[in-house]
């Protein structure tokens, strides 16, 4: 399949300066989302011909980063000074019907920040906020803010208690906050927020939203972990550690009580639970040690940290550095939660599993593939590399599950490196799951490349005649590749752009000055600005014209298709009209015949009703034919009864022989006289049963004979 030909990736713009586009997939690669040219497009991977789209209300936003929520219901766009969240209406089958007010409500929130005070560096969706989106924002000053989209309408409304990693004015020194945070990521437990600085890894645990979607099983697992932690604390354990473990148990118990208030909260069913403020204000713990730590990285700077699921609820951590090195580490100890302690560290350690080295220009970004255990992508300047750890990470996961370390003996922990592409620098990548195949899509400004990960074997099934429908049956026209609302949005943007007058004009005091004068440079500068503005509007108009031209070609094709079908219908209509008189004549004949048969049936029904109701007809004597019929019936009944009697006799004889044979066998085993007496009693019982059956048959025959004699007497009289 050529993904580049899919309509969702088509770009109508004729400008050479194409904007950056972002590609995402959700729900195991079945939901596809693309943002390009200030327009959001989405579709299901199974639908290769159509997509839905929605244009941004404000198209001037220079988007530098984008993320989606885990289910793919929300898209977040951001740059250093603005965050915008848009809801994607997957339930709507036709977005063209969306009104302006509804489109505005879907584009939920816009937050503007003062870059001098708070400059946005990274944005995440909290994985536990499934009822309403909840953002985790990292600023360039290493502050972390939690933004509740349901209650916060602008950036100034963010409460101070929703910020983490702020300087504590009551504490002396610089150890009360984490500096120079480069990247943050949530662990697989959805409760731990890991942060990477230039040199170290820290963790905010717990990291909870005001309202969390939790299941009973998840909370029970947290309770079990907390109990094990408490029981393993030694007598000489630090009082701070003991206090944190006790508070962790209190949190888990309070969550369990709140969940039990819901009637349907069983197993994996998630319910929304409010989290108290005292459990949401946390401080960083760490740093996390990595053992053994490579000496070559002491002079390097950390770039990114990611979490790589490997199955069974287990995970690895990926830490990248500016020299092209990626450390694959495993968290070997269970940490405790921490709230109000500065410079807290307990069980904060990683074990180094593998070192993967790339060229520095090959390592610009790491992307963990959703739904693919143990696989991640490393992208750089004109290079894309797929790293597969499954041949050893799956063994580690199984060992943890089975609590058996023997399979690790002799296991080579070396990942498979596959160079996918070396011709382009991708902007984003994701999984495209069509059901029959699963592919990794690499997307840059104007190219889409697919790399197949998995293909389902499909058995060939010949098409049967019953499955082949007629050409005109259930005929429907396909939708246009570009939705109508996207055309309208492009036209509106162009009309809005050309209606605005040029912002710069040549001042009146230098209009009459000759070009050879000193004012020539200023005139040329203004003319360049005007020509750039004019050129931008021309490109925008050409892009709109190209979209309309493509739509016109599609409409011509569909019109031709409609004309062909209409012509076939007209040809068949002529044949129908020619055959109509003959068919109508046959129909009249059949109707007349049906009417005649209905009259006969009605007459027969009337006669039967008359016979049934007449007492005279009931008392009429039997005719000769009726007498012969009854005699024949009597002879047949007697013959039938005779056969029944013979069958019973034969059956009894067989049963008797069977029992006799069994008796002979029993006698050969035991010569007891008591056994012979029992056999004699059984034989007497069989003879009694035979006599009873014969008596019943004789009584039936006698009764039938009396009835026939009575009929004959009535007839003769």
Automatic annotation (TrEMBL):
Q: What GO MF terms are annotated?
A: structural constituent of nuclear pore
Look up the record and report any one GO term of the cellular component aspect: nuclear pore linkers
User: What keywords were assigned to this record?
Assistant: mRNA transport, Nuclear pore complex, Nucleus, Protein transport, Translocation, Transport
A biological-process GO annotation: mRNA export from nucleus
* Localization in the cell: Nucleus, Nuclear pore complex
Protein name in the entry: Nucleoporin Nup82
């Amino acid at each position: 399949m050529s993904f580049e030909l899919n309509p969702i990736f088509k770009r109508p713009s004729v400008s050479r300066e194409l904007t950056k586009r972002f590609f995402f997939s959700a729900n195991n690669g079945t939901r596809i989302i693309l943002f390009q040219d200030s327009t959001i497009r989405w579709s299901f991977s199974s639908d290769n011909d159509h997509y839905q789209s929605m244009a941004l209300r404000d198209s001037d936003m220079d988007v530098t980063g984008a993320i989606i929520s885990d289910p793919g219901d929300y898209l977040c766009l951001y740059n250093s000074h603005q965050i915008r969240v848009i809801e994607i209406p997957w339930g709507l089958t036709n977005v063209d019907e969306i009104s302006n007010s509804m489109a505005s409500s879907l584009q939920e929130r816009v937050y503007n920040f003062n870059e001098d005070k708070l400059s946005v560096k990274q944005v995440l969706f909290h994985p536990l906020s499934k009822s309403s989106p909840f953002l985790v924002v990292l600023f360039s000053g290493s502050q972390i803010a939690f933004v509740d989209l349901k209650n916060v309408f602008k950036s100034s409304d963010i409460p101070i208690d929703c910020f983490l990693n702020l300087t504590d004015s009551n504490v002396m020194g610089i150890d009360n906050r984490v500096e120079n945070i480069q990247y943050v990521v949530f662990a697989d437990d959805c409760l731990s927020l890991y942060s990477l600085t230039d040199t170290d890894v820290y963790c905010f645990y717990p990291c909870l939203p005001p309202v969390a979607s939790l299941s009973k099983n998840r909370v029970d697992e947290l309770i079990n972990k907390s109990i094990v932690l408490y029981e393993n604390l030694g007598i000489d354990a630090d009082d701070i550690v003991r206090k944190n473990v006790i508070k962790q148990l209190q949190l888990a118990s309070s969550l369990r009580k709140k969940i039990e208030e819901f009637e349907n909260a069983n197993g994996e069913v998630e319910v929304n639970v409010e989290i108290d403020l005292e459990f949401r204000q946390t401080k960083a713990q760490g740093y996390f040690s990595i053992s053994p730590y490579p000496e070559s990285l002491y002079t390097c700077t950390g770039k990114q940290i990611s979490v790589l699921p490997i199955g069974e609820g287990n995970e690895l951590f990926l830490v990248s550095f500016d020299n092209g090195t990626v450390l694959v580490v495993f968290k070997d100890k269970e940490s405790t939660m921490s709230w109000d302690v500065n410079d807290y560290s307990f069980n904060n350690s990683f074990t180094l599993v593998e070192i993967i080295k790339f060229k520095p220009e090959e390592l610009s970004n790491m992307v963990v593939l959703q739904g693919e255990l143990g696989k991640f992508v490393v992208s750089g300047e004109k290079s894309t590399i797929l790293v597969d750890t499954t041949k050893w990470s799956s063994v580690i996961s199984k060992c943890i599950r089975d609590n058996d370390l023997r399979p690790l003996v002799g296991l080579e922990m070396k990942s498979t490196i596959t160079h996918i592409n070396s011709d382009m620098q991708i902007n984003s990548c994701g999984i495209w799951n069509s059901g029959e195949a699963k592919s990794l899509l690499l997307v840059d400004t104007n190219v889409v490349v697919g790399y197949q990960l998995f293909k389902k074997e499909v058995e060939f099934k010949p098409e049967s005649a019953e499955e082949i429908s007629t050409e005109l049956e259930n005929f429907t026209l396909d939708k246009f590749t570009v939705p109508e609302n996207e055309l309208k949005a492009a036209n509106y943007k162009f009309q809005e752009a050309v209606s605005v007058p040029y912002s710069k004009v040549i001042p009146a005091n230098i209009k009459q000055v000759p070009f050879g004068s000193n004012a020539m440079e200023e005139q040329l500068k203004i003319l360049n600005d005007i020509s750039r503005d004019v050129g931008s509007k021309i490109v925008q108009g050409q892009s709109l014209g190209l979209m309309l031209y493509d739509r016109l070609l599609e409409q011509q094709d569909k019109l031709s298709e409609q004309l062909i079908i209409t012509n076939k219908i007209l040809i068949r209509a002529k044949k129908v009209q020619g055959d109509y008189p003959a068919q109508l004549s046959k129909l009249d004949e059949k109707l007349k015949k049906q009417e005649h048969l209905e009259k006969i049936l009605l007459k027969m029904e009337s006669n039967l009703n008359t016979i049934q109701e007449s007492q005279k007809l009931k008392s009429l004597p039997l005719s000769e034919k009726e007498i012969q019929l009854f005699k024949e019936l009597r002879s047949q009944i007697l013959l039938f009864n005779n056969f029944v009697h013979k069958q019973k006799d034969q059956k009894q004889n067989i049963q008797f022989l069977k029992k006799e044979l069994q008796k002979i066998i029993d006698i050969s085993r035991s010569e007891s006289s008591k056994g012979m007496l029992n056999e004699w009693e059984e034989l007497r019982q069989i003879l009694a049963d035979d006599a009873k059956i014969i008596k019943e048959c004789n009584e039936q025959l006698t009764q039938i004979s009396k009835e026939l004699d009575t009929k004959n007497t009535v007839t003769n009289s």
